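Good morning,

Attaching, inline, the C-alpha cells for the sequence recovery test we're adding to the shared suite. The designed sequence is right after.
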C-alpha cells in the first residue's frame, strides 16, 4: 500500500508539473506575440512618420513664389518617371532652375536641354558673378562673341594668373578681355575672387601703379577703423613679415581712410595742428592737408594687438589698460574712450589682417 500510494502521488506531481509548464509556456508565447506586434506597429508608425516628414520637407524646399511642387506634380504624367522635362515648363521657370547650376553642371545639362542650357543670359550671369568687371563687358561684342566661350577664357586666364600673374594678365589682354590700363586691371582684381592671394600679393608688390588704383576703389566712409582695415586686407593681403611692403600698405590705407572720413578725423583729433600742411584751392582759400600720422600709428597698434591676443605663443596677453597707455603715448590727441573701443573690437572680433 505504501508503494502504491507513492506511485500515485508521483504521477499526480508529474501531471501538475506538466500543467504548470504549459501555462508558463503559453504566457511566454503570448508575450512574444504582443512584443512582436508592438514592435511592428512602432516600426510602421516610425516609417510612416519619416515618410511624411520627408515629403513635407521636400515640398517646403521646392516651394517659392509659386507652388512649384504642385506644378511639377500636375505636369508629370502617370506613365512618365524621373525628373520632369524642363522644356515642358514655362521658359522663365526653366531659366530660373538652370541659373542655380555652376558651369560644369550647366554643360552637362546642355546635353539634354541644348537650347535652354546654352542660352547667353545664363552664361553671362555666370561670367559676371565670378568676374565682376572686365573691359569687354563695356564694349560692343565682336562677331561670333559668346559668353560661354568668354567664361572658358576667363577660367583659363585665372588659372594662368595663379601660376604666373604676368602671363595671366597678358593672356587677358591678348583675348581682348582687359585693356592695358592699371585702372582696368585694378577693377578686375577688386571684383574677382578666384585669384590666388599669394600670387596676387607678389603682383601688387611689383605693380605699384595697380596697387594705387586698387586702394582708391575702397570706400571706408563711416566705417570703424578696425573694420575698415579688415576690409582692406581682404582685398590686398598683408605680407607675412614686417617690411617695406607692409609699411607701404599701411601708409596707403591711412591716406585713403582719412580721405573718406575728413569730418571724423577732425572730430576724433586724428589730424592735430602742426601735423598738416597748408595749401591753396582753386578759389584762393586756404585749407589744410592733414597727414594721417595718427591713423598710421593706430593701424600698427591694431596689428600688434591682434598678434598679441590671437597668438598661442604669447602667454601674457596685453590688457586693455596697457593698450590704452601705450597707444596714447604714441598718439596723445586720441581720446581714451576711442582707444578702448579699438581694444574691444580686436578682443571680440579678432585679427585685422587674418
Amino acid at each position: 500500500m505504501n508503494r502504491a500510494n507513492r506511485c500515485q502521488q508521483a504521477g499526480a506531481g508529474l501531471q501538475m508539473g506538466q500543467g504548470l509548464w504549459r501555462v508558463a509556456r503559453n504566457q511566454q508565447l503570448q508575450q512574444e506575440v504582443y512584443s512582436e506586434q508592438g514592435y511592428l506597429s512602432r516600426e510602421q508608425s516610425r516609417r510612416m512618420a519619416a515618410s511624411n516628414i520627408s515629403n513635407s520637407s521636400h515640398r517646403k524646399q521646392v516651394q517659392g513664389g509659386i507652388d512649384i511642387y504642385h506644378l511639377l506634380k500636375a505636369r508629370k504624367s502617370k506613365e512618365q518617371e524621373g525628373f520632369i522635362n524642363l522644356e515642358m515648363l514655362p521658359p522663365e521657370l526653366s531659366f530660373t532652375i538652370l541659373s542655380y547650376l555652376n558651369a560644369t553642371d550647366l554643360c552637362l545639362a546642355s546635353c539634354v536641354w541644348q537650347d535652354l542650357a546654352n542660352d547667353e543670359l545664363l552664361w553671362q550671369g555666370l561670367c559676371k558673378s565670378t568676374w565682376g568687371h572686365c573691359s569687354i563687358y563695356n564694349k560692343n561684342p565682336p562677331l561670333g562673341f559668346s559668353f560661354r566661350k568668354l567664361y572658358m577664357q576667363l577660367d583659363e586666364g585665372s588659372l594662368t594668373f595663379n601660376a604666373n600673374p604676368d602671363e595671366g594678365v597678358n593672356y587677358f589682354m591678348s583675348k581682348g578681355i582687359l585693356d592695358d590700363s592699371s585702372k582696368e586691371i585694378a577693377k578686375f582684381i577688386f571684383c574677382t575672387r578666384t585669384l590666388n592671394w599669394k600670387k596676387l600679393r607678389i603682383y601688387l608688390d611689383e605693380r605699384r601703379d595697380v596697387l594705387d588704383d586698387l586702394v582708391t576703389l575702397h570706400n571706408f566712409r563711416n566705417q570703424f577703423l578696425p573694420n575698415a582695415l579688415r576690409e582692406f586686407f581682404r582685398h590686398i593681403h598683408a605680407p607675412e613679415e614686417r617690411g617695406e611692403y607692409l609699411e607701404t600698405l599701411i601708409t596707403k590705407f591711412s591716406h585713403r581712410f582719412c580721405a573718406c572720413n575728413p569730418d571724423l578725423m577732425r572730430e576724433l583729433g586724428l589730424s592735430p595742428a602742426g601735423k598738416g600742411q597748408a595749401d591753396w584751392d582753386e578759389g584762393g582759400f586756404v585749407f589744410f592737408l592733414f597727414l594721417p600720422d595718427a591713423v598710421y600709428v593706430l593701424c600698427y597698434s591694431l596689428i600688434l594687438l591682434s598678434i598679441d591676443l590671437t597668438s598661442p605663443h604669447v602667454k601674457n596677453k596685453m590688457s586693455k589698460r596697457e593698450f590704452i597707455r601705450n597707444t596714447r603715448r604714441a598718439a596723445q590727441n586720441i581720446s581714451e574712450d576711442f582707444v578702448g573701443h579699438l581694444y574691444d573690437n580686436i578682443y571680440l572680433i579678432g585679427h585685422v589682417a587674418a
